[in-house]
Write a structure and sequence with these properties.
two-stranded antiparallel sheet; globular; homodimer; Arc Repressor Mutant, subunit A; 6 helices; alpha+beta; three-stranded mixed beta sheet; DNA-binding
Chain lengths: 156, 156
DNA sequence: TCATCAATTGTTATATTATAACGTTACATC
DNA sequence: GATGTAACGTTATAATATAACAATTGATGA
């Protein structure tokens, strides 16, 4: 929901994300296969978005692009990750299970992402659209700038 | 600012866009060269976003990709067009000269785009970000859905 | 006028991101 | 175990974008 501190316990971060993913897949009757789980783990190794081909390299074993893209499609379809359109990259969803429009703050210096779950903003945009007769189905909001750490001068 | 009607006078639409572009370039001391002007015209031939390679074909004369991308870079840099991130495509700016964050409504059926200039929404997002200590430099907002015409059942 | 420098354009090659198509394997269900 | 579907492997290719360097044009001042 906000920017992770530099010294947060990232292991538990990953563990809880994986746990939530398993729960969500059980709930939906979806299969979190080995490949899919490993891709999700790789995505969660950092709080910055990762590109598909970077994941491909990390996956190793001479995996081909479709392998990654299928896993990404699955994870996107089940709300376990988000795609960052302005970076052609993917990031773990910080609150799967509850449907929401992603609203992202992207630090141009350290690359970190924060995902907001501000229903208010989403609703405001939907209402503006509705005033023009436009019905919103999905919404992409990506703000680029400097995160608290990088703004302070230090590069966290 | 809103969706163009089906029978609007598109010639004058293009003409005024080109006129505004020339004025803006004069004001900025930028050169709207022949290629740049033609690319801008091609972009304005429709109110739907156009891809770079589609423009390339229309430009003809065996132009190579860098020709288009340079023209697009110029037009983006001077605020004469916008890039639609979710479509890797480009659309004419409906109010150049006044700096603004683009906020787009994209019809998934007819492809039409409306550009909102709602400073209120922009400011709301910036404030939410500021509450987390994040400083917004640029903002991308793209809503997908159905425009008034396509929602009505007819495909305009 | 012309020398000169910077901006623009031409050209070739290549990087990056993503998907099509088709065969094979694994898994659930009966 | 037979059968059907979902998942995965593999090869090729599409779509989007940039790097690098040469050639040209246009503005500016000597």
């Amino acid at each position: 929901m906000s920017f992770p501190s530099n010294d947060h316990d990232h292991r538990s971060c990953v563990a809880s994300a994986l746990g939530a993913a398993e729960a969500e897949c059980r709930r939906r009757g979806a299969r979190l296969t080995d490949i899919r789980r490993r891709v999700l783990e790789l995505i969660w190794t950092s709080h910055a978005p990762v590109g598909a081909y970077a994941l491909l390299e990390q996956l190793g074993r001479g995996a081909a692009p479709p392998t990654i893209y299928r896993a990404l499609d699955f994870l996107l379809a089940h709300g376990l990750i988000h795609r960052i359109e302005t970076q052609n990259a993917y990031v773990g969803c910080s609150h799967p299970g509850q449907p929401h429009a992603g609203l992202f703050l992207l630090c141009r210096q350290c690359g970190a992402v924060a995902e907001l779950a501000e229903a208010a903003t989403t609703r405001a945009i939907e209402q503006e659209a509705a005033a023009l007769g436009f019905q919103v189905d999905s919404l992409t909001v990506e703000a680029h700038g400097l995160c608290p750490g990088c703004r302070g001068g230090a590069s966290p």
